[in-house]
Amino acid sequence: MTTQFQTPPADSLRSVLRRVFESSEYDWELPRDPLRFFRELYSAFLEWLDQLQQAHPVVFYVLMGLLTGLLLAILAHFGYLVWRALRPRAIAEAVRGGPVARARDAAWHLGEARRLAQEGQYAEALAHRFSALVLELDGRKMLKFHPAKTPAEYIFEARLGDPGRNSLTGLVNALYKHLFGGVPCTAEDLHVFDRQAADLVAYGATS
To answer: CB–CB of 60/53 below 8 Å?
Structure first.
């Protein structure tokens, strides 16, 4: 007995395929491009510049000059920040108590801070003022000076209570901001730092 296979009608086959591909499993989407918006924005900006050059060439060249100047200013500021972060080893050694500063006491650092302040080198003076503070607190057994320690390490070991530790934290933050953060240090900044450091030593003496 021979079985005869019959091909289903084309309309029936199309109907089945349509129902299959209309199901949620076959809901095809193109992959999203997270950078598409920025590429389109960049293309639109270039097109706008091209139209501006054709319609108003003088304005176009003035704008190009301003944008070039802005780019150079950003690069110069970045270079300045890098220079501030990597500059003179003498400052870092003064803050951390390098091999030479290790044999010098708080009075010597205070004298250096005053001398540098008179010369207008306020950031360098700030570093020596902090070294004097650390040595004064070490003399009162509030912390232990060590040349390998960073300023931030003294915060966690200082035996000053919460108010004193908060004050020391503020001084360390100011130190990093001016020495490595690129923020200029003024005479007033140094004066405030000096007064807060003196208050902290006085607090340590009474706690």
So the answer is: yes
CA angle 197, 87, 158 (to 5 degrees): 30
pLDDT value for 34: 74
Identify the pLDDT of residue 197.
93
Residue ranges for the chain with pLDDT beneath 50 = 1, 3, 5, 88-91, 97-102
- Nearest C-alpha neighbor of 180 from the set 204, 156, 151: 151
d(CA 197, CA 194) in angstroms, rounded, equals: 5
DSSP assigned state of 101 = G
**Domain range summary for the chain, segments of one domain joined by +:** 48-86, 89-206
Instruction: Please report the pLDDT score of residue 112 as a whole number.
Output: 92
Taking CA atoms, 96 is separated from 35, 172, 178, in Å, by 46, 12, 16
- Which amino acid does the sequence have at 179? L
d(CA 179, CA 124): 8
